Amino acid sequence: MYQVNEKGYYGSFGGAYIPEMLYPNVEELRLCYLDIMNDAGFKTEFDNLLRDYVGRPSPLYLASRLSAHYRMKIYLKREDLNHTGAHKINNTLGQILLAKRLGKKRIIAETGAGQHGVATATVCALMGLECIVYMGEVDIDRQAPNVARMKLLGATVIPALCGSRTLKDATNEAIRDWINNPIDTHYIIGSVVGPHPYPDMVARFQSVISAEIRAQLLSHEGRETPDYVLACVGGGSNAAGAFYHFLNDESVKLIAVEAAGKGIDTGHSAATMVLGKPGIIHGSKTMLMQTSDGQITEPYSISAGLDYPGVGPVHAHLFKSGRASFVSVTDDEALAAAFLCCKLEGIIPALESAHALAHLEKMKANETDVVVLNLSGRGDKDLATYMKHQNL
Amino acid sequence: MNRITELFKRKNAILSVYFTAGFPALKDTVPVIESLSAAGVDLIEIGIPFSDPLADGPVIQHSSELALRNGMTLRLLFEQLKDIRRSIQAPLLFMGYLNPVLQFGVEAFCIQAQEVGIDGVIIPDLPFSEYVEEYEAMFTKYGIINIFLITPQTSEARIRLIDEHSKGFIYMVSAASTTGAKAGVTAVQSDYFARVRAMNLRNPLLIGFGISDNETFANACAYANGAIIGSAYIRALEQGTDVQTSTARFVQSILTN
Ligand SMILES: Cc1ncc(COP(=O)(O)O)c(C=O)c1O
Description:
The complex is a heterodimer of chains A (392) and B (257). Chain A is 43% helix and 18% strand. Chain A has 392 residues and is of the alpha/beta class. With 257 residues, chain B is α/β, with parallel strands linked by helices. In chain B, helix 2 (29-38) runs parallel beside helix 13 (243-255) and helix 12 packs across helix 13 (243-255).
C-alpha cells in the first residue's frame, strides 16, 4: 500500500517527468533494477561489502542519559558509525554495483552536505570508476572538509553556480551532465528523489536500516517494533530506510522531521510539507516549495543536507495518507539538540540528524515508550558551524 | 487547418526561432515576435521562463533567470499576447516546462492559449506516456498541438509511436545534449538524420539544438524540413543594441548564403 506501483507512483506522487533525452537511460534502469537487485550474486556482493567495508550492522544503542533526560526509552540507530560517516554509503554502494553490471564507466552525483558526494567518491575509488560530483557553490564553502575528502578520493568537484547555488542547483547540473553523456554514465542520485525508479531503488538500498532495527530491537526489547521511529528528512532517504520495514505495522508511529530554518513564516525555511504544494521537481511529482507561478523557490536551512525545496514522492504520499507525521525544527532548536547530544552521550551528530534529535523535546511519549531515532550521520563536517554557534 | 500544418504544406527549409518571453526586457515579448516575423522567420517559439530549466544550457538558463527577475509570469505572458493575432500570421508555439503549466491549471492554460492564438506547445519534461494518458484529449479539444522530441538514442519503435501521436512536426534533437551545445553536423549526426528520414514518417521533421549559423542551418535543411535556433539568437539579443536591429541582422545572417 505504501510501495511504488508499476508506473512509478506512490498514490498520486512520483512518476518520471523527464525530457526525451533521458528516456533511454531511465528506461534501462527501470527495466533492470529489480532483476539486478534480486540477483543472488549481487546480493552476496552487496551484503559482504556492507559488512566488511561499511561496517554493518550499525549498532542500535540505548542512549540512557538522553532517555533519562526526555523520560522515554531512546535508541539511536548509529548510521554515523558507517564508513564515511552517514547512511549515504548504503545507497552509493548499491548503485555502484548496479552501475558496474550495466557496464557504465563514468559516475556523476550531486551533493548538498557533501556526505553523498564523499560516499560516491569513496565507492568510485573502490571500484576504479571516474567520479564527478556537482555541488552548489554555497555548500562548497560551508562544507569545506567534505570537498577536500572528495578530492583526496580522486573525484572532480564541479561547482553549481546558478540559482541558490545549493542542492537543487547541483542536482540540475548533474541531470544536465547526464543528458549530455547518455551512454557511458550512471547518475547516482543521493536520496529518494528523481524520476522513477530512483526513489524506489534508493529506498530499497536504504531499507537495510529498518531491517537491522527489527532484528536488533528483538534482542534488546524482545519485540521487533518500537512505538516511534524518528528521522530527519531532506530528500528523505534515511527516513525512507528507517521507515521501510515498519510501513505496514500501523502500531509504529513514524515521525519525519523537516528543517524549519529560521522559522516557518520567515521566508527562510525548508519545511516542504508545510510550505509546499504538489509540483514537479527533478523528474518527480511531489510536494514542492514554489511560487503561485510555479517557479521553484529557494529553501533555507542551516543544514546543507536538508536544504531542498522538494521531498521524495514516497514521503509526499506518507504525508497525504497520514501514515507518517511531518514536523519541523528550527536551526536554533537543532543546534541546541546537537549540543545536548554531545554532552549527554558523547556523540557529535550531523546537523541533519540533530533536527531529529530536537524533536524529542516536543514529543509527548510515555516513559515506557520505545523510540528509535535514526542518527543519520556524524558531525565532523559541521564543526565550523558548531564552533560558530557555541558560546564558549 | 492548424497554422503549423499549413506552413509545412506550403514551404520547405523552415526557420523556427526560439526566444525567452520577457527577455531582454519585460516588455520585449511582443516586439521580439514582430521583429522575428518581419525578418522572415516562419515559426516562432515563445519560451515560458522557468526557474529550473533542466534541458537547457547556460545561455537559455541565463535568459530565463533574467526574464523571471524582470517579473515575467505565465499570467502576464497571456496578457502580453492578447492582441498578438492582430499583427502576426506565423504559427506560434509555447516552449516551457510542466510545473508552471500545472500550477496555472492545464485546462485553463489550453483555453487561454487557444484564445490568444497559440498553435502548439513543446514541454520537454512532459513525457510521452503521461501526455497520451493524461493530457492528449484536453489538448486536442482546444486545438493545441503537442510537439514531441526524438534524439539519436530514441529507438525506431518509439519514433513510430511518437509519430502516430504527433501533429504538426517532430522535433529532432541533433545530439544528446542540453540546448546551446556546439554541434555542427558530424558524420554520426548525418547517419542519424538520414536514418530517421528514411523512416518516411507521417510528420515533417525540424532539427534543433546546436543550430547557430547559416552553415548549420543549411546542413540541417538538407536532412529535414527545417531547423530551430535558440541559444544563438538569445546571444544576439544579449549583445545587440535594440531588438529590431539585432533580430533583422541575425535572421539575415542565417538565411543568406
Ligand atoms: C547525515 C545526513 N543526514 C540526512 C541527510 C538528508 O538526506 P536524506 O533526507 O535523503 O536522508 C543528509 C544529506 O546530506 C546527511 O548528510
